[in-house]
Specification:
Number of helices: 13
Largest sheet: none
Number of strands: 0
Strand content: under 5%
Order of helices and strands: HHHHHHHHHHHHH
Helix content: over 70%
């Protein structure tokens, strides 16, 4: 019975973590995703499961970041990173490291945050996949935030060469590259990059699809893309119960 209960508890932690991932990445229910992530943190902490505690802190950090709750995001990401350093698991350490770097580089711009993100990703350039490509994408985003557009274009291009079997990471990197090329005045190249992102993420749906439609509308001045974005956003907003989350989506995508 004890072994069976342990298996049930492990499955419960896994399923709660999976719900947090799906609710955010696919359903775009930020409120449910955050609540599930926080529940996963509590379940993992209750039984001392360091694996799921690291992953759950990391996913909660991302959810807080998208809601604009930067300090909460940083707190969760730093907890994940600190815990991972006490666990003899290179994969967990890499995941927590890239999670913290991602929160730092997408939050309020500061030289200190960008420098910390740069230092965090250095060991990942020689880690197991997909972390080298992910790290190069973060490095490109750092260069973008610093206004170093040619460097950002080069680094994001390098990331695309080594990212494989990770459609969401691949789509995000194409979107960043499209943004860089748009800022460089390379409108045709920006359109090609935005289309590449859209082709990859269309079957997946979720947050990246909204980002792709928003960027496609911008770089192509496309009313068709804007209308698709409005329709998708309306569908999403119907499923979002939390007022703050709904306003966060409207502020990010319009509507």
């Amino acid at each position: 019975l004890a072994d069976g209960q342990a298996l049930d508890d492990d499955a419960r932690r896994l399923l709660t973590f999976a719900e947090a991932s799906v609710a955010f990445a696919v359903d775009l229910d930020l409120d449910r995703g955050l609540r599930a992530a926080e529940t996963a943190v509590a379940l993992a902490r209750e039984v001392g499961d360091g694996r799921y505690l690291v992953f759950s802190h990391a996913i909660a950090a991302e959810r807080h970041a998208w809601l604009g709750q930067q300090q909460h995001a940083l707190d969760r990401a730093r907890e994940a990173f600190a815990l991972s350093q006490r666990l003899a698991n290179p994969y967990l350490q890499s995941h927590a490291r890239i999670s913290l770097a991602g929160v730092l580089v997408t939050g309020p711009k500061s030289a200190a945050a960008l420098e910390e993100a740069t230092e965090l990703i250095k060991p990942l350039l020689d880690a197991m996949p997909p972390y080298p490509g992910w790290a190069k994408a973060v490095r490109g985003h750092v260069s973008l935030r610093r206004g170093e557009l040619p460097a950002a274009e080069s680094e994001l291009g390098e990331a695309l060469l080594v990212l494989a079997d990770t459609p969401r990471l691949l789509a995000r990197t194409w979107l960043s590259l499209a943004h860089v090329r748009y800022l460089l005045g390379q409108r045709d190249a920006a359109r090609e990059a935005a289309d590449a992102a859209l082709d990859i993420i269309e079957p997946e749906g979720g947050w990246e699809l909204l980002l792709a439609l928003r960027l496609r509308a911008r770089v192509c001045d496309s009313e068709t893309a804007r209308e698709r974005l409005r329709e998708r956003l309306a569908d999403v907003l119907e499923r979002v119960r939390d007022d703050a989350a709904r306003e966060a989506l409207r502020a990010t995508f319009g509507g």
